[in-house]
User: What shape does this take?
Amino acid sequence: MQIIRRAFILACTIILASCGGNSSAPTPLTQSKQLQRGDKTQASASPYQDVVEQLYVAYYGRPADPAGLTYWEGALQAANAPTTIAGLNTAYSTPAVKAIVDSFGNSAESQALYGSGNASGFIGAIYQNVLGRAPDNAGGTYWSGLVSSGSMTQAQAALAILSAAAAEPTSSSDEQIVANRLTVADYFTAQIAAQGLTQNYSGMSANAQVRTMLATVTANTDTTTFQQAARATIFSLPAMTAITSCQEITVSGNYALVNDIAPAISSTKPACIYIHDVSHVTLDCGDHQFSGQPTSHAFSSPLEISNADHVSISNCRLLAAGPLPSSFFNSDTISFTHNILSYAPGIVVSYIYAKNITNALLDSNTITGTYEEYDSTNDTISNNHFTSLSGPGINQAALVVIVNAINTKVIGNTLDGSWDHVQHPLSALSGSDDGIGIDNGVNLTIQNNVISNVFDCGIEWVDTLVNSTISGNTISYAANCGVGAWDSDNLIGATIANNTVKNAGSLFTFYRGGGLNPDGNNATWAPLQPFGVSTNVVFQNNVFDGNVFTNDGSMPMMWSGTGVFFYIYSYLDYPFGSPGAGATDPPRANFQLTNNVFKNNQFGHGNHPDFGSGIVVPGYIIDGGNNQCTPPDPAAYPNYPLTCH
Assistant: This one.
């Protein structure tokens, strides 16, 4: 009986026989097939233990580490989630449950293993993790179709596959491999804790080694006998080198911080933990803290990674005690996960600074302050919780800053700008100007983030954004706009879709300030050269689809009755004659503003997009249909390009 039967029995009744899965029972090993619960050394007595282990197996292909098991058990309990995979699958639409499941699917480890653009490859990997086999043609087509169409997220599809497999009869080989891998995962997690070797199970290399072990478990595995293989894997994990004071790390290996540390007053090193000119380093802090240096003569930061690759930092508490940030320079494949960044009293600078990095993974961290990234490629910033520093006159440009980035993903983060919803003078404003700020990006994904309490915009870019997606974000209490740009800005081939903006000055605000500057980023950043933005103002081939704007009156709108400011018919409201220092006015003929499609948007009761006061030019705005808005006065706005519903 195939695992997809319960998930789509009505749609697949005719092809059940060909949808895959082996319903015939394997040769029974009934005397020792399953470990009894009473025979295990329990890592946890929580009713959520098996659920968490199954999620780890499905999404990561490995058992939970003890710290991760405890963390996610607590998260599920706090969400009052069901205690079975089937129940969790049914409750996926519940926001708290969805957030937990999506955290697995959007995590740095999951993104590194499966990526986000190949649905069939992802489904194949989940089948291998859960069932130890490739999907049959019908099953693979069905699940990858749901993911490709957007009907299911990757996280939701993996949960549904796991749920269907676990529900198979005990005679099914699919059900037996699910049960066997769960039994081995439970045993492994309990045993590594019992042996006091938890610190060794950390980082990409250790995860891969354990993943290989679990992949050998089949429907026919005698799980009692397999304990020997599990224990052998535990004892074969490379031992951790203990760190007891601030130090440089220039030798490959696994390291563990075993106590809280801070740099000596006389330290001249750039950071308390300084990892440089090295490959393959894992540091697990076990929730211990290291800090920067507050003295006037040695402003060392908590952490610096420089000229390194394949470095993993996890379970650390970093204290910003001075004005310098933790930093990543000229490095590849950096994993920074499950860490906490905070700041000492009196400190007004707290952030992580990254430059010239590739394939970085910043996941599931709690950061009081900001993350700034420059000249980087293929990075993922996911599932983090950012909170702005606050206090009179203490403010940041954005909680996540991305400059000159290619293929960067910002997914599933929570960003609280700490703005108090009062329009103080600029010098007295407290918190974050924007949630996510971008200065030049190509192929970016800004998706499923929750942004609140910013005194400008939820998401804003300057200069140019190309072939990028801003989708599924929830933005509330943004004084000026949900999504906006107005500083030397261009937008090319973008999809801005399914964002919800509540209690903000506007849904979108787009206009153009700043002329053509031969020394500006639009002219000097090489990846933009094919798009002509050094000599043109370009807003074209963009899609605005399914966005929702509401305002209950608790936040004043910028101008009543509009909700969207996109002055495309008046040259983006560009101030001709005032191009800015070192810049020149773009000729009117150099404004390329065609094929901007609006469809399925809800602009709010009484609102309509304001496209500017100039002559309506055919082809600038394309009405894709089903936009909910209140049409403007025809006498004041003839030939309005959208049909309001």
In short: Confidence is low (pLDDT under 50) at residues 1-43.
